[in-house]
Amino acid sequence: MSVASIPPSILLADGDAQSRTMFGDFFERRGWVYEVVAELELLNNALENSCYDIVIADVAMPGLDSLGLFKEILQKRPTQAIIAVSEQASYDEALNYFRNGATDLLARPIDFPWLERVVQQIMCAHRQDERERLVCKFVTHERTEMVFSCRDIVELDTVPLPIVSRLQAIGALDQSAALKVRLAVQEAVLNGLEHGNLELESSWKEELEDDGGDRFSTVRRERLSDPSYAERLLVVAIQYDGVMLEISIKDQGQGFLNLSTDPHQVIAADVACSGRGLALMSSAVDEVFFYNNGSEVRLRKATNNARRA
Predict the structure, then answer these.
(1) Which domains occur in the chain, in start order?
(2) Quick check: pTM over 0.85?
C-alpha cells in the first residue's frame, strides 16, 4: 500500500448518539480507521493509550473543557491535528479555538464533503515525501509563482507548497505551524476559486433543489463546465527571504470588500464578518492583508529564523 493510500486514523469524541452514528457511517464509507468515545474519561484513556492522525472533538461534550484539553494534548503531542466541532463557527469563537491549538473548526450541521477535504489536506501535510524535504532543506531564498485555472484547482484538490516542507525540514517552521500555514493557504485558494472566480454565494448552501441537493453545489458544477468561469485564473505567488514567508493568492473575481478608507489593504480584524475561514487564516500567520476589494489575499508568516536573528 502506498503512503498516499493509507487511510487516516481518527479519534471521534462526541456525546450525541445520532451525531456519532452520522460520523461513523461517513468514516466507514470512506474506509477510514476510527475510534469513537462518548465520555470524557474514555477520551482521556484513548489519548493515553493510542496515537491518531486526527482528533475530532465535539466542544459541547458533557464535562469537556475543550480549550484545556487541546492544550493538554499539544503539550504531549505538539504535532497532533485537532478538529473542533461546534454549534457555531463565528469569527471570535473560531479564532479562540485556533489560538488554543485547534487545526480547524467545523460547525453543525456538519458539511461532510468539507470535512473530507480538511482531512485530506491534513494527511497530505503529514505525509510529505521525506526525501524531497531533505534534498530541498538547504534552500534559504525562493520566489515561486503558480498559475492555475479553476479546473486545475479542482483536479489538484490541494495546491502544492513545497517551500513549507523545506522550511519545516530546516527548522524554520515547526510541524504545527507548517500544517496551519498549509490549511490557511488552501482556505484562501478555495475562497478564491468559489467566491472569487466562480462567484458563488455562501447562502446558496441553504437553498435546496428539487433533487435534494443545494443550489451552491449545483451552480458550482454548472460554472465549472462553463469556460467563461472555469478558465479564469488563480495566481499563487510565494516568496521567502530567509526570514519572512509571504504567500499571495489572487483570483479574477470582482472581490467582496468595499474599502472606503484605504483602497489597497485591510487588516483581517476589520472584516470579522467573514467568519471561520478568516479566523483560520488569521491564526495561522502573523498578518493577513486584502487587496483589490478582496480579490487578492496576502499571508505573511515570520519563520523561526526571524527569532534567531
Answers:
(1) 3-126 (3.40.50.2300), 130-308 (3.30.565.10)
(2) no
